[in-house]
Amino acid sequence: xxxxxxxxxxxxxxxxxxxxxxxxxxxxxxxxxxxxxxxxxxxxxxxxxxxxxxxxxxxxxxxxxxxxxxxxxxxxxxxxxxxxxxxxxxxxxxxxxxxxxxxxxxxxxxxxxxxxxxxxxxxxxxxxxxxxxxxxxxxxxxxxxxxxxxxxxxxxxxxxxxxxxxxxxxxxxxxxxxxxxxxxxxxxxxxxxxxxxxxxxxxxxxxxxxxxxxxxxxxxxxxxxxxxxxxxxxxxxxxxxxxxxxxxxxxxxxxxxxxxxxxxxxxxxxxxxxxxxxxxxxxxxxxxxxxxxxxxxxxxxxxxxxxxxxxxxxxxxxxxxxxxxxxxxxxxxxxxxxxxxxxxxxxx
Amino acid sequence: xxxxxxxxxxxxxxxxxxxxxxxxxxxxxxxxxxxxxxxxxxxxxxxxxxxxxxxxxxxxxxxxxxxxxxxxxxxxxxxxxxxxxxxxxxxxxxxxxxxxxxxxxxxxxxxxxxxxxxxxxxxxxxxxxxxxxxxxxxxxxxxxxxxxxxxxxxxxxxxxxxxxxxxxxxxxxxxxxxxxxxxxxxxxxxxxxxxxxxxxxxxxxxxxxxxxxxxxxxxxxxxxxxxxxxxxxxxxxxxxxxxxxxxxxxxxxxxxxxxxxxxxxxxxxxxxxxxxxxxxxxxxxxxxxxxxxxxxxxxxxxxxxxxxxxxxxxxxxxxxxxxxxxxxxxxxxxxxxxxxxxxxxxxxxxxxxxxxxxxxxxxxxxxxxxxxxxxxxxxxxxxxxxxxx
Lengths: 348, 389
Prior knowledge:
Chain A is α/β, with parallel strands linked by helices. Chain A contains 11 helices and 13 strands.
């Protein structure tokens, strides 16, 4: 599909700047909140007014937009955008009974504000899109990038996924049963055998184009699916592998989106059953938490594994010790209805 | 095609209203807000209960936004004579757009976001994706499902994304559109920016005072050119372009760079020159900023600005639905070779001298452009061309 040249990830782990993911940063109150950098490069006056989602999104994008490659467009996946600002504005509406309000929170809260701010700061007048299909928002952004690179073969695009934990979306998803009720250490996420997961957030950006030279990895295949049927999911994975795996090649590592919610294990079991014993299995949501665009962080992890040829021990579920990591399959599902497969290949 | 707005609950009703210069903007009757009697709105006069009965949609957690979308979606697939199996084909994509999604339920959201017990039935209904997730489940859609939020250009982007999915081989057919319903969130948001007009909006008028918010939904069925034999066809989507103005979070640049580039890019995509455009359905919100920037961009691009009008004076600004509703209107322009009056226009903007079409009339039309520009500088232009018969 296309090549990843640069990537940047702000997450609950040490992924931004100098990465150090061998040791695990733990959750606080069942939330895996990002380690925020100092955001050098964003003017202080602008930074102060930015909500967290925009701050993280722009912060993760900055190293890429300041680079030497000209960017032809900006494509962001986010389920909720600036949720904190959104509800702040909402609270004012109710608490001041629709009195005169200040527009800052409103303007910041529109979901397209992240892509818009990146466009504004980099004076990018090209393609600018925000995909909001909840658990497939980032995957649709990837698909958009793949199509753009078919349409404009020489172009480069910034593509990313951003979502924040706000007190408000935490409450809403908690009430809806998506977060665990008992406090838990991140390392114990998969062993509780209860419903719900741990909240996460993050901002991950990629610079992508069609040039193999100097690429960090290649996104070789992508599948997006809405279903509640694990049999259909497994059948789709078989078709996906048939289509995208070269003859005789195998998946070396499955990055499984297992999130400790025992209601969703059937989907991940179905996916694992399709793969043969060659594939190692690793998990990432004890690092990143559960959020709608977490697959962006998973792609960042895949790129990191391909580069370093090692998987942090705390991620390993099944250690098959392949001779080398060449092909990584990311499998994710969001709330049991939105599923994706992303195939990431080594280009070295 | 399917459409519902303040001037009609079907494509046919919308066309009749446009032909009769109907303005659907007035006092609120159904939606409760402090501004109900202070500001005019483009409200659809169907209650949620009525819509639920009519649509046979009684699941818990359904919002007005979803109901309006379902209304337009049902009309569109019936008009295209799509069978349930065709809707479920892996090659049928659903691309929607909305800016408020389930946030039309401002008071319930306030409750659920600030409490940790006693959640409402709407917990999974607030985000933008909730609308399409409902349609996906109701119809068992297996193809690509996506939702755009690029503010007021959202559904124009949904339309062009659907076309690109087809062009790039990710779908054979795309059901594309958008929806928004009135919400305290947007009413207070736009009011805080002082861009809501106390009177009915007057697009492109020197004395314009701002926009009126409206609500509505529209869906269109796009079929791949190779597959259209024997099917009803209204028009061809020949050009589209998405750009960013990269000037300000909530206003357009003076010279309208984003709008100019979007219109120019759509022409290039269609292989047309500016003189080929017969008519423009302008974004024309009625705000000081939009109408001036859009006019300047049109003057930059066109040696002679083609006939143009804004239907926002009929429907109000329906935000995430506007691009799709106005795509339907642009197609009606082409199919019936007619243009509709830009209502409430009186005096041209001094700086531009541009006058929109002021009365409904027959007119030979070959290529119609539809503009949508939004907050965050998100601009999109579409070009629809008369279908070869």
